[in-house]
């Protein structure tokens, strides 16, 4: 990753250990290690097998080959094992991602993957953003809405409303990807928070709550274990019935202010948006995010065994 994504902080051993031992919500993980003649590692592959209802057709590949050992068939060997596992798991769709114009992009296209989605990665430098440049003031609220926030697990009083708001993510632009759809309930949002906490990460959430108690929108930011200068944007969504009131910009601005107040060591936020998600890209650009790299997502349709 340091070779292929020089501008992206590489995961440290603790973060890698957490990813290997704490599967993402609604999935389990299979892993492969390729070694050279001296027994040293030269390549790795990980397969996320989705288990949630509505996603039983899906698996996600992560594959890395050491730059010094590329073009020797190691990636193809690992991929053949992954595809065999997909057949054994009755998966019909294998998805993966690669940096644009990278060896991973070329490898995916040579192995029959089709390009399904382009993502624009953006960075917001908090230390270069004067408070006066934020588009909304701290006490600015669209009429009829108030702000609620928490760290980690959603409070019980908001759990059902938050689960309903999570469903709004099902209509985000996904190009030709075949993610399926996920039904959110209070138990699932609590389980998501537990997975993140068990990895040692911290999840911050801010939500727009309507006067009638409906959760109209929210934004989430992840602080990787050990913290550090870069936070990761997770979901931002506005429920369809509440769109058009500037709620997305409002909650994201409030999150910037929260990070500055509670986590001054965080100096930048990374997010990504589908390139055809023009609304959220406009929100992020207005807040001060700037594009710095692109990722391509690929899909391999697997015939029935």
UniProtKB/TrEMBL annotation:
Keyword Transferase carried by entry: yes
GO terms for MF: acyltransferase activity
Swiss-Prot/TrEMBL keywords: Acyltransferase, Transferase
The organism's place on the tree of life at top rank: Bacteria
Enzyme class: transferase
Classification via PANTHER family: ACETYLTRANSFERASE, AMINOALKYLPHOSPHONATE N-ACETYLTRANSFERASE-RELATED-RELATED
Record protein name field: GNAT family N-acetyltransferase
Originating organism: Streptomyces albidochromogenes
């Amino acid at each position: 990753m340091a070779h292929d994504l020089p501008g992206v902080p590489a995961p440290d051993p603790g973060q890698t250990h957490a990813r290997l031992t704490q599967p993402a919500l609604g999935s389990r993980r299979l892993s492969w290690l390729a070694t050279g003649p001296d027994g040293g590692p030269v390549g790795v592959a990980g397969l996320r097998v989705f288990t949630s209802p509505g996603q039983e057709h899906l698996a996600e590949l992560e594959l890395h080959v050491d730059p010094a050992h590329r073009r020797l068939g190691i990636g193809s060997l690992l991929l053949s094992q992954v595809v065999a596992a997909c057949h054994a798991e009755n998966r019909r769709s294998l998805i993966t991602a690669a940096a644009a114009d990278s060896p991973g992009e070329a490898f995916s296209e040579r192995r029959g993957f089709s390009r399904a989605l382009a993502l624009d990665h953006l960075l917001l430098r908090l230390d270069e953003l004067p408070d006066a440049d934020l588009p909304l003031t701290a006490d600015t609220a669209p009429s009829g809405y108030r702000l609620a926030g928490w760290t980690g697990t959603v409070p019980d009083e908001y759990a059902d409303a938050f689960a309903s708001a999570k469903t709004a993510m099902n209509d985000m632009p996904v190009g030709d990807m075949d993610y399926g759809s996920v039904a959110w309930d209070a138990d699932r949002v609590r389980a998501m928070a537990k997975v993140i906490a068990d990895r040692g990460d911290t999840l911050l959430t801010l939500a727009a709550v309507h006067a009638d108690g409906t959760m109209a929108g929210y934004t989430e930011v992840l602080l990787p274990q050990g913290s550090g200068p870069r936070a990761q944007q997770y979901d931002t969504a506005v429920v369809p019935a509440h769109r058009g009131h500037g709620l997305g910009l409002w909650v994201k601005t409030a999150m910037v202010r929260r990070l500055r107040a509670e986590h001054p060591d965080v100096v930048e936020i990374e997010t990504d948006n589908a390139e055809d998600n023009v609304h959220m890209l406009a929100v992020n650009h207005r807040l001060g995010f700037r594009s710095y790299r692109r990722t391509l997502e690929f899909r391999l349709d697997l015939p029935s065994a």
